[in-house]
Give the backbone structure.
Amino acid sequence: MKYLITGPNGFIGSSFLRYLNTIGCNREDVILITNNPVSGYRNITHSQYSFSIEEGLYTVFHLAAFIPKSSGDVNSPVAIDNIVTLQNLVQSLHKNLAKFIFFSTVDVYGSQESIITEKTIPSPISLYGLSKLFGERWLASISTELQFPLQILRIGHIYGKGEESYKKLIPTTIRYILGDISPKITSKGTELRTFLHINDCCRMVWSASNLDPLPAFLNIAGEHPRSVLEIVTALIMVSDKKLTPLITGTSGSGHDLVIDPRLRIELIGHETVDLLDGLREEYNHTKELQEV
């Protein structure tokens, strides 16, 4: 089987490549669709994911996408590119598809008041979430027409080495701490999140892609809800610095985003990376980058 991967330079994509190496996947079986070649692999360049490839059967891991690096980017019109590039990709490959693994997002669920399961009705509140939901539904239609197996993985809050460029909770807090500044929380810090370490994410993606039959939807997220304040406090603890979170929120908090992990646990097992260990690894990695 040949594996075709888009987005191999991104946070999850580059980590997924490393994971494939650790499990002994033959590099000759991996083809990267990218305009930023990765050494040691066959790279195919593209124009908005239009490209030519020889006939054969490929399992596609479509990670490439516009992904907001901060909350202020979720309604960027660039999100529409997610639709165009997906359609171009399928058009380039439709005769060669053994399996299509689509990396979607829990952002398709929008703001939910209850715990999210695979049966929760999507209700995105951002252009980014809408672009991913459109992609899911278009793929569901075209996969039936062209008769290729489809799996949609809705990825939750992932953390770990490689997310330094993001302006999200964990990397932003680490930057505050490394600057000896009390981390700022712009809510009351009580909203819950289910973070999953990047190593667990990659392992779960691979395991999910090898299920038979493929579940139509699977949420890939952590098992243990923690509040924003708990996460920030844990990062301060692993830093060994004497700082105190600066809570600036005065009226309520942001909404919870808690994913029910029971289906994922049943199909592919539990997460394995302890939160404190994962946060310590990311903190030390970012610290080392700053010291170079």
Summary: The longest helix spans residues 127-146. The helical segments are 11-22, 81-93, 127-146, 169-178, 198-209, 228-239, 262-268, 275-291.
